[in-house]
From TrEMBL, chains A, B:
Residue ranges for the DNA-binding region feature of this UniProt entry: 43-62
Protein name: TetR family transcriptional regulator
MF GO annotations: DNA-binding transcription factor activity; transcription cis-regulatory region binding
Keyword RNA-binding: no
Residue ranges annotated for the HTH tetR-type domain, each copy included: 20-80
Keyword terms: DNA-binding
Amino acid sequence: MHGVNVSAITSPLVWEHVQPAAARRLLTGAIDAFAERGFQATTTRDIASRAGMSPAALYVHYPSKERLLFEISRYGHQAALDVLRDADSGDSPAERLRSMVEAFTAWHAEHHTIARVVQYELAALTPEHLAEVATIRRAISAQIEQVLSDGVADGSLAVDDLPGTTLAVLSLSIDVARWYTPHRGDPAALGKLYAELAQRMVQT
Amino acid sequence: MHGVNVSAITSPLVWEHVQPAAARRLLTGAIDAFAERGFQATTTRDIASRAGMSPAALYVHYPSKERLLFEISRYGHQAALDVLRDADSGDSPAERLRSMVEAFTAWHAEHHTIARVVQYELAALTPEHLAEVATIRRAISAQIEQVLSDGVADGSLAVDDLPGTTLAVLSLSIDVARWYTPHRGDPAALGKLYAELAQRMVQT
């Protein structure tokens, strides 16, 4: 994938909640390794080595490679949901939609390395962990579906297929993580363009 | 990833041009293996075994695992380009856009397993092979950019950012491969919805 040389450790995503520092180094090392080689091809030795530790030391902090993926996936999904909720403001459904799409798109450009791991490695989670992540995914979807539904109710937005359009709006932003590299432009500008395109999708 | 149990060999994509049959079995086995475990974690032994062959027999047909990926990637991209070109018909830029987005979206739903391999494993190609695939990717992009540009020229479509909107239209269809599973609906119906949404993105 493109852009894998950008270390996740330099990302503005805040990992300070992960304590102690050794656990945090393992987690950011795992993000880089999964983004570069995929979950299946990454060994715990590889992750430990990126964190300057022995494979045995990794197991002090995480019982398995899957547990690291789950922590990354849960945190990444929760961060994306928080971005949507924080951006859900405005005087009309159209303004709220623009604000959310703008923020959600910019987040997927800025955090494209984490977003790729989170989106493309879901099948590697255990059923229990996948179920927990799926709950956050439903909340993300509900956030967009609600504003479209509010717009239909007050007659300010035109939506023929509510779940299909909800998925399309989210999909447009999420796919930014696949193709985005810093030379493709500024995340904020991309957010503004996508806010405009999403609003056009549903305007009356 | 979801849907990896759907064998690529059952896909309507025509692999008959790959001769002899042993080479074709290796190729479809590689698609399934790459989709299931990723390129890096797949061994030539795994691919050979899916084709009912020995690892040594694989090398009779393909010099490397990367060569298999390249054949899949080149064919997948060319098939997607052909779909766009065949669908580029209609009396107005808006009609041409609708027709292309409808076909391109349905293709990504139907062939989601191949499309994922093709889109997510680009970084595993050699620089020479990536350059060859990039040529087809530029032709795909040019196909959409041309119709938007024609619509701007005759005043029938409104596009502020031509490359950005081109990328967004393609991205919306391509991301279908990430989330699509047969229980998410009919590829043809999805194509019609996305044609409508894409047209709305650029209507005056």
